Amino acid sequence: MTAKTIPDLPGLLDLPPLGAGDFARVEDKVAALMRTRESVVIMQGEALLPLEACIRSAVRPGSTALNVVTGPYGETFGDWLRSCGARVVTVTAPFSGAVRPEQIDQALREHPDIDFVSLVHAEAATGNTNAVPEIAAIVRRHGALLMLDAVASVAAEPLCTDEWGVDLCVIGGQKAMGGPAGVSAVSVSTRAWQRITENEQAPRGSYLSLLDWKERWIDRGRTALPHAPAQLEMLALEQAVDRIGAEGLERVMARHRAAATAVRAGVRTMGGLRAYVVRDEDAAPVATTLRTDGVDAREAVTLALAADGSLPLQAAGGALAAEVVRVNHYGSAASREVVLASLSALAEALRTLNVAVADTAEVLAAAEEAWAAADAA
Predict the structure, then answer these.
(1) Residue 1 pLDDT > 60, yes or no?
(2) Is pLDDT at 135 greater than 70 in this prediction?
(3) What's the rounded Cα separation, in Å, for the pair 170 and 161?
(4) Which end of the chain is least crowded, N or C, by CB within 10 Å?
């Protein structure tokens, strides 16, 4: 195997330092994208950093938390909640679907002491998405804090942080935003800050500390950064937000919706694959997961990528690796050309594995028609 040559990028290495004003400017742009007037903190790491920081900051020992599990990230949140000393009430839904708002309502009625709810908006790993506006309204009536993982959903489907009453909302740039993975952001409501400030177990003097950002950055008027920022990632994040603004957020979301619709339509015509997320309304616009019939998903993906290694195809993780193919159509991959190329490669891979599939032209025609209809909606 030939090693990749790393290009010489002196322009990136010799940039002037990123100042507090620059950092605050990027925060304000991210806040506008998240539709919030609350505090937004950009944290210097992948989105698991602010997600864990939210739980460890807002959850007190002896409290009761409701954790909604519709995919692997929900399972991770449950582990963090228990390690904070919370009693965890778990509401689950099949990974091939979404949680129903009435499940949340029932859990809150049965456990009136719940004061924290953790929820994933869209799970790229499983290809499902949850009805956040309805769920958030139920949580708000109950009076609990709501933490939302919107890493995969931001810029792919509506995210109205303040309107929905989300107290802690975490996003990352690496999915629909088409940006970097090395920085992420969290919005924190006034209610959430009060809870965090009152929590004696909230991290302090720690990379996980939201309080440190509040006291050393926000409360001081955002005039001096508490530490050196990840400069290249911050600039890339700003460029991603600016690019969304130039295209138009509604247009970006429409592309993602059309991509998901086209993949599902193409697969219905193709045969040999079945949508893992059963109902169209539960399907996330960032990724489509597909069950293979009688062949190993990993082998199908390997064959599909042999023709074009740039296609956004992968086998699912964990227990689903042998039976589920994942088509990632987020960011720049949410395009008609990438979707059609992915479907074509999958059809050819299945033929190689002796799976009966429809003619590729028919598959692509179905996908094209679905894209046009979704794009016009």
Answers:
(1) no
(2) yes
(3) 10
(4) N
Q: Convert the pLDDT of each residue in 94-126 to its tens digit.
A: 999 999 999 999 999 999 999 999 999 999 999
27-72 pLDDT, tens digit each: 999 999 999 999 999 999 999 999 999 999 999 999 999 999 999 8
Phi, psi of 342 (to 5 degrees): -65, -45
Cα–Cα distance, 83 to 110 (Å, whole number): 23
Tokens of 234: 């911050």
How far is 370 from 374, CA to CA, in rounded Å? 6
The domain containing residue 317 runs over which residues?
249-376
Q: Exposed, middle or buried, 352 (CB in 10 Å: 0-12/13-18/19+)?
A: middle
Residue 179 CA to residue 233 CA, distance in Å, equals: 9
d(CA 216, CA 229): 14
Kindly tell me the sign of the dihedral angle through the C-alpha atoms of 231, 193, 103, 132.
Answer: negative
Is 366 domain-assigned? Answer: yes
- Whether 6 is covered by a domain: the verdict is no
Kindly report the number of other CB atoms within 10 A of residue 141's CB atom: 11
Asked if the structure places residue 69 within a domain, the reply is yes
Domain boundary among 227, 246, 265: 246
Taking residue 332's Cβ as centre, other Cβ atoms within 10 Å add up to 11
CA distance 37 to 76: 29
Cα–Cα distance, 131 to 75 (Å, whole number): 19
E strand or H helix that includes residue 250: helix 249-270
The SS3 assignment for 39 reads strand
Do 24 and 130 reside in the same domain of the chain?
yes
Alpha-carbon distances, residue 157 vs 1, 47, 147 (angstroms) = 40, 18, 17
CB-count burial class (<10 Å; 0-12, 13-18, 19+) for 291: middle
Model pTM?
Answer: 0.95
Range with lowest mean pLDDT among 8-17, 181-190, 259-268? 8-17
- Counting every residue, how long is the chain? 377
CATH code where residue 260 lies: 3.90.1150.10
Same domain, 267 and 242: no
Q: Are residues 146 and 38 in the same domain?
A: yes
CA distance 32 to 162: 11
Domain end call among 246, 266, 287: 246
